[in-house]
Design a protein that fits this description.
With 179 residues, this protein is mainly alpha-helical. The protein has helices at 13-46, 50-76, 78-84, 87-111, 115-146, 152-156, 160-163. It is elongated, with a radius of gyration of 18 Å.
């Protein structure tokens, strides 16, 4: 699933801007969903509603396994490989990879928890993910877009885990074309 972040030719500024917007939009949607799922679990725990808590916990764990963890793992290849090879990107990427490990560990903690512990784990996942997205949106992706030889559009091409289903590339229209 590794795709090179480096472009084979000059970057298309419109494609780069579109890719950046798609990733940011996908990030916003993911954070909104995670926040809603976390709030549902916290509310059930607070109300001591065991049935609602069990259901909310199950839905949150499933979302983390099906969406959050695949998203973080998909980033590690194509999105992070180019910036990690730059002196100005290496430490940022290393820090973001450390955050991925924390997120995965917190999902494991959430899976085996109940009650207050599950609400704390859920809140921790939400908070670290929000911080992580902020760094990607404001530091990492602008670095990719601004760096000659790297292309955000090519790095995320075809990876719905990174851009969502709405950013679909049309076959046969050339690299980076999307609808």
């Amino acid at each position: 699933m590794d795709q090179p972040a480096a472009g084979t030719g000059p970057k298309n500024a419109d494609e780069e801007a579109e890719a950046l917007a798609a990733v940011e939009h996908h990030h916003a949607g993911m954070l909104k969903r995670l926040t809603a799922l976390t709030e549902t679990l916290v509310h059930a725990v607070r109300e001591q509603d065991a049935v609602a808590e069990h259901s909310a916990h199950e839905v949150l764990v499933e979302w983390c396994e099906d969406d959050l963890v695949p998203h973080t793992l998909a980033e590690e290849g194509p999105l992070y490989s180019g910036p990690r090879n730059l002196p100005e990107g290496r430490l940022l990427v290393d820090g973001m990879l450390a955050e991925h490990r924390v997120i995965v560990a917190l999902v494991e903690e959430l899976r085996g928890s109940a009650g207050v512990e599950s609400a704390v784990a859920a809140g921790s996942i939400r908070n670290i993910f929000a911080l992580h997205l902020e760094k990607e949106n404001t530091l990492l992706m602008p670095l990719i877009v601004a760096t000659p030889g790297l292309s955000l559009a090519r790095a995320v091409e075809g990876l719905h885990e990174l851009v969502g289903e709405a950013h679909v590339h049309r076959p046969g229209t050339g690299s980076g074309s999307s609808v």
